[in-house]
Please model this.
Amino acid sequence: MDHAYVEEHGLIERYHRGLLDPEEETRFEEHYFSCPQCMEQLELARGFQRGLQAATAEDAARAVVEAGLFAWLARRGRLAQLGLTLAVLLAAAALPALWLLGENRELRQARQEQTEQQRQIEAARHDAEARLAASERQRQEERRDLEQRLAQAQRPSGPAPEAARPLVPTVLLLTTLRDEPGEPAATFPGGSPVTLAVDAGADPGFASYRVTVTGAGGHTLFRQDGLKPNALEVLMVTFPAGFFPPGNYRLTVEGLRSGGEAAGLGGSPFRVVP
Model:
């Protein structure tokens, strides 16, 4: 039910006089409480009726004690009724104005609360963006550092005296853990430091990783727990010069969960040549 339907069928006057059937009365009341215009018109009608009732009672009382005044009002009925009607309308119009004033005060308070909530949300968003930007800058710095180390390790150099050679470790990147049959082994020369870099990925199910290096016959040469990947999701383990004599070796990686359980992720063979 909309306001046009109410005006077209005169529902305000019929509701005021109690002439609506129950179903139509219920629908009108649902519209009335959400329509300030209908509310104002109904309040005017009720105020006008109360004013007329009060005027009638006052006229009746005065008729008992002042018959002359009653006759004077009867002769000037139209002017008196018009003045009374105007007074009642002015009084009734003031009531919705006071009600709307209270409603506006509540709306202003609600808007202020909403504005404060929006400000807090914006502040939290800016803080999260700042932390994300700082994390990204750190990740890029770590990536550049690793790239520089790899480039420096792979840079060719001419013959130099043994004592003059810098002790820069050889970086051996083991990019697979698939354990495929016949997989070629990565090779590096012995007699110098070496860094084994393993692309293990970053699995949120693992708290850390374990790296194990075995030699001929499966003999364990090295094992380290608690390793975590760097910004490039690479596990790196550095060994001093002479740690690996020439021969065949195997590196295996296990993921360690927070409860201490280990899950094998595979391995990669490598070879040390003279």
Summary: Residues 167-273 form a domain with the Immunoglobulin-like fold (CATH 2.60.40.10). The chain has a mean pLDDT of 75. Strands lie at 170-174, 186-189, 194-198, 208-214, 220-227, 235-239, 247-256, 262-273.
